[in-house]
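Reply to dn_fold:

You asked what the input looked like. This is it:
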Amino acid sequence: MRPRAVRASLAWVLAGMVCGCATQRAMREARVDLQRIDLRLVLLGERLAAVDSLLQLQQADLREQRLEQTAADEQMQSQVVQLQARVDESARRLGELREEIELLRVYGVGKAPPRSSEAAAGERGPADRPVLVGDAQSLYDMAMADMKAGNYQLAASEFGQFVESFPESELADNALYWQGECYYADRKYGEAATCFAEVEKRYPQGDKVPAALLKLGFARLALKDNKQGTKHLNDVIRRFPDTPEAAQARAKLKTIGRRR
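and this is what came back:
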């Protein structure tokens, strides 16, 4: 073999050895890099697991807080319901004391049959029980009880005493109105008309004004004063158009054949 050829062959061999070494080095470096990547992936997985565990703990705490809040809300709602029930019961009892819904719109179902003042006085008159009572509510309740029982003369006297003794009471306009009702039930229409007229005159802002004006019209009609009676009924319709009293006034005017 020629020396030139030998040198060429040696060069190729050396080049191959160099390339082989470079390839092995690259492979070793690649394996090292893969190991590093694997280690990083392991560390990242551990971090993700820790974060996931933390999120689960936070979600558990949040669910527990929601359950506690729900329980607190339910307890609060229960307390509100109980309080509302107490308020409703108090309102119901107060309503029962306040004229039993205007005696079911004046002597409706549930009231004892009306009796004349003479018959009532025969059973129990002013002499049977002193009228003077110092407590406003007791006197008012006593008068209401007598009116419900049909003792109109006695009840009218008691209501009159109430108005004289407690003119500034929130029940004073009611007492004056019911005094008029007692006279009206006893067919003393003149006295009734006077009481009904006094309700608006003395207590113009009271809630008994519409009813008093209505019954004033009825009393005037009963006294054959059709002009004034009709006028008062029309006043009810004009001033309190959406009230039950206005409906009664319209019905009365229709019954007597008069229009507004």
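The chain has two domains: 1-97, 100-255.
Hope that clears it up.
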